[in-house]
């Protein structure tokens, strides 16, 4: 979801179960999530973020596991396997990404460079590589300044 939506850490942890909309078009089920407020939407106009089929399927499975009455989508799981009712803090996103990378066997030098914005950076770089224009990338990532986007894109193509 983080990759598909290009959500900032704070946006990701603010997503709520009630804001998930299941769509059926031409017999295919997909989902969208309402981002109620973002750094560049301080008036809380809101924006619908659309998920890929893969992210949609993962979200549907995750939502089946959430306890009745769960408010937030991004919640923790304790060591006993119980799902927390409170949402994750934005600082936890960074640690989760690093833990996933360690579990995947990535080199510590790579893991050191992972941050809470890594999914956002990767999605922006992939958009550029697929031929998306700067205005499209800015719109998808909800950036208001080109210099910010350029910081995300400046290392594209560099060897790790």
Unreliable stretches covering 5 or more consecutive residues: none
Integer-rounded radius of gyration: 16 Å
Helical content band: 40-55%
Number of helical runs?
A: 8
**Cα end-to-end separation:** 24 Å
> What strand order characterises the main sheet?
1-2-3
The percentage of residues in β strands lies in 15-25%
Overall shape: globular
Structural class computed from helices and strand pairing: alpha+beta
Order of helices and strands: HHEEEHEEHHHHH
Q: Overall pLDDT, averaged?
A: 90
Report the sheet with the most strands, covering strand number, pairing sense and barrel closure. 3 strands, antiparallel
For the secondary structure, the number of strands is: 5
Walk me through this protein's architecture.
This protein has 160 residues and is an alpha+beta fold. It has helices at 2-5, 9-14, 53-65, 90-103, 108-112, 118-129, 134-141, 146-153; strands at residues 20-25, 28-35, 47-50, 75-77, 83-87. The strands form two sheets. A three-stranded antiparallel sheet has the order 1-2-3, with helices on one face. A two-stranded antiparallel ribbon has the order 4-5. It is globular, with a radius of gyration of 16 Å.
């Amino acid at each position: 979801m983080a990759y598909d939506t290009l959500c900032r850490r704070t946006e990701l942890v603010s997503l709520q179960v009630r804001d998930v909309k299941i769509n059926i078009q031409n017999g295919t089920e997909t989902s969208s999530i309402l981002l109620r407020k973002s750094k560049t939407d301080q008036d809380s106009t809101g924006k619908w973020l659309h998920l890929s089929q893969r992210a949609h399927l993962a979200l549907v499975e995750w939502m089946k596991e959430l306890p009745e009455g769960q408010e937030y989508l991004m919640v923790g799981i304790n060591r006993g396997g119980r799902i927390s009712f409170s949402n994750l803090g934005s600082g936890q996103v960074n640690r989760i990404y690093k833990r996933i990378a360690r579990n995947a066997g990535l080199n510590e030098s790579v893991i050191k460079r992972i941050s809470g914005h890594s999914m956002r950076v990767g999605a922006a770089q992939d958009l550029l590589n697929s031929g998306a224009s700067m205005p499209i990338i800015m719109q998808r990532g909800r950036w208001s300044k080109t210099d910010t986007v350029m910081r995300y894109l400046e290392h594209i193509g560099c060897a790790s």
